[in-house]
Amino acid sequence: MSVRFGPLLTAADGESADDLTRRVNRAVENLIAEDVTTWWRSLRDLGADAQTAPPVGSWRRIWAQSQSAEPGGQARRPRIWP
């Protein structure tokens, strides 16, 4: 599990709930971009519209979810066959 922290977001005077929601959405997208790429790249791409990026192929999602567990996790099961 990883935790990302961003700047504090509060509603500005006269800001509507829809506008605040859009700002929160952009902030979360930036934090996700930082996790996927690097801090520097996420700052560089901050002005780019995240919705113009092509969708990730399903094979990439499956591949990312099938990574091996990190060492130190659960003990390996003993092998039945040598």
Topology diagram in text:
Layout: H1 17-36, H2 39-44, H3 58-65
Dominant shape: elongated
On the 0 to 100 scale, the average pLDDT is 77
Low-confidence stretches: none
Order of helices and strands: HHH
The biggest beta sheet reads: none
Distance between the termini: 35 Å
Multimeric state: single chain
Helix/strand/pairing category: mainly alpha
Sheet-strand content, in percent, reads under 5%
Q: How many H/I helices?
A: 3
Secondary structure: helix percent = 40-55%
Rg result: 19 Å
The number of E-state strands comes to 0
Can you walk through the features of this model?
- 41% of the residues lie in helices and 0% in strands.
- With 82 residues, the protein is mostly helical.
- The chain has a domain at 18-44.
Write a brief structural summary.
This protein has helices at residues 17-36, 39-44, 58-65.
Primary descriptors:
82 residues; mainly alpha; 3 helices; 0% strand; elongated
